[in-house]
Design goal:
By secondary structure, the chain is of the alpha+beta class. It has helices at about 35-55, 60-80, 85-100, 110-125, 130-135, 140-150, 160-165, 170-180, 185-200, and strands spanning about 10-20, 20-35, 205-210, 215-220, 225-235, 240-245, 250-255, 265, 270-279.
Length: about 280
């Protein structure tokens, strides 16, 4: 069946009805990309999440964390040209959404909003490089931090007193300036979020059991699978390691009583929720 969960968080609360009562069970989400393109998108999603979590923080270390992630994103997109593929993904999603609009008994307002957002982001992505170059070419502070960030401890106050001086400013001033620097990257973040949202919500979901901690399954070669997801109760003592390709995937569940010790594959059977996400 097609999943209707909003799968954009690494930990969510799911609700289950049983004999008229409502219980709350918190679950963790583990994901495995099935190709390098999706892996890159998940890494960028992770970096943007770090930025959005810390950008409103008042401390010097909040601003440092935001800039560190900002520089990682700049270095990432300088090395890997994935904008064309991201635009292709969004255009593909747009075609599917247009097809769904002609399906009876669907939420046409919701589909129209998603379709309009998809087309808007395709247009914005076309101009992202020019905006980035214009925004950063005159930013000497980011240039200096970027140069020194490859050195362990290279951005400390003795090495970059100008950076330290800026970090002592009023938190609101710093937050406003960070938002200004990040503004050209926001269409990229929104495009990644929307692309992954549409992939994650187009999923075949099933309840599975891994005998002695091992599960293996084949994938339909005629379907464009992108991500394998495993949902597990937060309090479960095991965690999964997922490996896969276009034709099959395996999941091994490990126990680690102490983080200082080596994890071992569990001998118990493990029940879990499996989602195979596709485009």
């Amino acid at each position: 069946m097609t999943s209707l969960h909003c799968l954009t968080m690494t930990s969510v609360t799911k609700f289950h009805n049983y004999q008229g009562t409502r219980t709350v069970k918190k679950k963790n989400l583990y994901e495995q990309p099935l190709n390098e393109r999706i892996r890159n998108l998940l890494r960028l999603e992770y970096l943007f999440a770090g930025i959005m979590y810390r950008i409103k923080g008042p401390a010097e270390w909040d601003s440092r964390a935001v800039i560190d992630n900002f520089i990682e994103i700049l270095d990432f997109i300088a090395r890997i040209d994935f904008k064309v593929e991201l635009i292709k993904d969004l255009e593909h999603h747009a075609l599917i959404l247009e097809r769904w609009q002609r399906t009876p008994n669907v939420n046409t307002e919701r589909l129209t909003n998603l379709l309009d957002k998809t087309k808007e982001l395709v247009e914005k992505l076309d101009h992202i490089e020019n905006q980035l170059e214009e925004n950063l070419s005159q930013n000497q502070l980011i240039h200096l931090i970027r140069q020194r960030s490859t050195i362990s401890g290279g951005t400390c106050r003795s090495d970059l007193p100008g950076y330290y001086h800026w970090l002592q400013r009023n938190p609101k001033q710093r937050q406003n300036k960070l938002s200004e620097w990040l503004a050209p990257l926001m269409p990229l973040r929104d495009a990644i979020d929307l692309n992954l949202y549409l992939i994650r919500n187009n999923a075949v979901t099933s309840q599975e059991s891994a005998l002695s901690g091992f599960f293996q399954s084949k994938l339909d070669g005629n379907v464009n699978y992108q991500i394998i997801q495993v949902w597990m109760l937060m309090e479960h003592p095991c965690y999964p390691e997922i490996k896969g390709g276009k034709q099959r995937f395996t999941i091994r569940f490990f126990e680690q009583a102490d983080v200082e010790e080596r994890a071992i594959q569990t001998e118990q059977d493990v029940n879990f929720e499996l989602c195979c996400c596709m485009t």
